[in-house]
Amino acid sequence: MMQEPLTLEMYENAKRLADERVNQGNQLLTAEVEKLRLATQKQDAEAMEQANEQIWRAQAMIQSGLTAQRSLAEKKNIQGTALQWLRKEMNLPAVEVQPQSNGFFGLSWFHIITMMLFALFTFSMIWMYFQKLKRVNVLLARLSGSTTEPGVSAGPAFLPTTITPPVEPIPVNAVIAPTKSNAWTGHLQVAGIFVETPTVKTFRLVDPASGKLPFNYLPGQFITVTLNLNNIPVKRSYTIASSPTLRDCCEITVKHEEKGTVSHYLHTQVHENDVLQCTGPSGRFTFTGQEAQSIVLIAGGVGITPMMSVIRYLTDRSWKGDIFFFFCCKDEENIIFAEEIEYLRKRFPNLHVFLVLDNLSEPTKNQFIQGPLTKDLLTRFVPEFITHRIHLCGPPPMMNAVKTMLDALQVPKENIIVEIFAGVLPPKTEPQLPEEAGKTAVVTFAKANKTAVLTPQKTILEASEDVGVNIEYSCRIGICGLCKTKLLKGKVTMDVEDGLTDEDKKQNIILACQAKACEDVVVDA
C-alpha cells in the first residue's frame, strides 16, 4: 500500500510533537546536570548514578526530537528514518529502507511519528530497568561476599584464643569522606528517641527535608548542638554514636547530668519531630581501620559513644582486625547499648568484649568482670597489649587511672589516643594567682574594636563574653576547636591544645577557651 503525502495539518502536528520532545529533553537535561553537580559535591554515589541515567534519557529525547525535525524539514521518509534510528539505538545492523511515497499499512504520517516517539520512550524505560537490575545484582553479590559466619568467643569476658593475622587496612569508604571540620551549620529533626538506660537516651537526627545527611563524618567525630535558653545561646558537643555507613540519619547518645543545662533540656523538653540547630562535624578522635591493624577501645560511662561509632563502622565493613573493647560502668543496669553489644559480639568473632562492673551482687555466668579495671586485666585479655593502638574515653578519674596503668606498662605515647567528655568534667578548683598591680593584661579584639581586662586566671573566651564579643565555642575544654582564633600580638599559655592541628600552631592559631596571658594581647575576633 502506498504512503499518502502529509497534509499541512499533519505536518504542523508532527512538527509540534517534535519541538515539544526537544524542549522537554532540554529541561530535563538542565535539571539533571544541576543534580549531578550537587551530588558530586556531596560524594553521593547513588544520586550521581541516578542523575547520570536521567541525563542519558534527556539526551535520547532531544535526539529523537531532532531526528523527527530533520526528517520533516528534508521531507524524508519519516517511517524509514524512525526505523533506522531505533536500529541504531539498539545496535542492530542497518538495513536499506525502501522508499514509500504514500503511507504504510494505511497509517497516516501523524500516527507514524506518534508511534515512533512512543517506541523511543519505551526503549528508554526498558534500558533504565536493565541498568537498575544490574546495580541490584552487583549489590547482592557484594553483600553475599562479605557475610560473616556468626561466632561466639570463648572464655570469661570473651577472651580470644588467638590473634587475627595481620590484615591489609581497608580503604575509607568514599561515601563517608569527612566534611571539612565544622563546615556545616543547619537544622536536624528528631526522628526518634530511644531509652538506653535510666539516665541515657539516644536521639536519632535526620534532614528535615527527608534527604540524606547534609554532611559526612568519620567514626568518633561529634556535632555541636545549640539551644536558645532564655534568649541565651547555649552549646554542647555530642559524639555521633552511629556508623557513618548509615547515610540517612545520625544518632547522639546523651546522659542526663544532674546539673547539665543542655542534657536536662534534651531529656525533658525535646520530643520527636522537634528541630535542633547543629554544627559539625568535628573531632580527631577517629578510627577507620586504616590507622592500625588492631585496636583496643577503653570506655567508661557515656564515653562509650565514640567507641560504638567505631565498632559499628568496622563491623558494617567486615573489618578483619581484632577489636578489644573494655567498657567500665557501675552495674548491669547501666550498660549502654547492652543488647547491641551482645549481638555484635556473637556475630563477629574478631570483636572481643570485656564488661567491667563496679557492683556485682551475684554470679552472672562469667558474662562480666568484677571492677575496677586493672593493668593485669588488660594484659591478660589482650595478647601483646603494648603493641596495639589504644583509644581511651570516659570520666576524668577513670581516664587518669587508666593512663597511669598505660605508663606503668610502658605503652608508647603515640599509641594512645584520648578524648575527654565535657559533660563529666568536675568544676575547676585551681587556686587563684595573686594579681599584682600593673600585671593585669588587656586583650584587644581587632575585628570588634573592643578591649577587655584579662586577669591571669581568665581566658580570652571569658573576657570576650564580658564585653559582648561573639567567639564561637562548644566544649570549653580545648577539645572541639570551635573557638579557634588567630593571635595577632603577644603571647598566651594554654593548658589543653587538643583542638589545634600542627598547621594551626604554625599559623599562630589559639584556643580562646584555653588561652590566658599576663601581657597585653591582640586577637583576630
UniProtKB/TrEMBL annotation:
Keyword Coiled coil annotated: no
Transmembrane stretches, start-end: 109-130
Known cofactor(s): FAD; [2Fe-2S] cluster
Signal peptide: none
Domain 2Fe-2S ferredoxin-type, chain residue ranges per copy: 441-525
SUPFAM superfamilies for the chain: 2Fe-2S ferredoxin-like, Ferredoxin reductase-like, C-terminal NADP-linked domain, Riboflavin synthase domain-like
One Pfam short name: NAD_binding_1
InterPro entries: 2Fe-2S_ferredoxin-like_sf, 2Fe-2S_ferredoxin-type, 2Fe2S_fd_BS, Beta-grasp_dom_sf, Cbr1-like_FAD-bd_dom, FAD-bd_FR_type, Flavoprot_Pyr_Nucl_cyt_Rdtase, FNR_nucleotide-bd
Keywords: 2Fe-2S, FAD, Flavoprotein, Iron, Iron-sulfur, Membrane, Metal-binding, Oxidoreductase, Transmembrane, Transmembrane helix
UniProt GO molecular function: 2 iron, 2 sulfur cluster binding; metal ion binding; oxidoreductase activity
PROSITE patterns: 2FE2S_FER_1, 2FE2S_FER_2, FAD_FR
Superkingdom per UniProt: Bacteria
Family annotation (Gene3D superfamilies): 3.10.20.30, Nucleotide-binding domain of ferredoxin-NADP reductase (FNR) module, Translation factors
FAD-binding FR-type domain: residues covered: 183-288
Record has Calcium as a keyword: no
PANTHER family: NADH OXIDOREDUCTASE HCR
Family (UniProt): In the N-terminal section; belongs to the FAD-binding oxidoreductase type 6 family.
Protein's UniProt name: Oxidoreductase
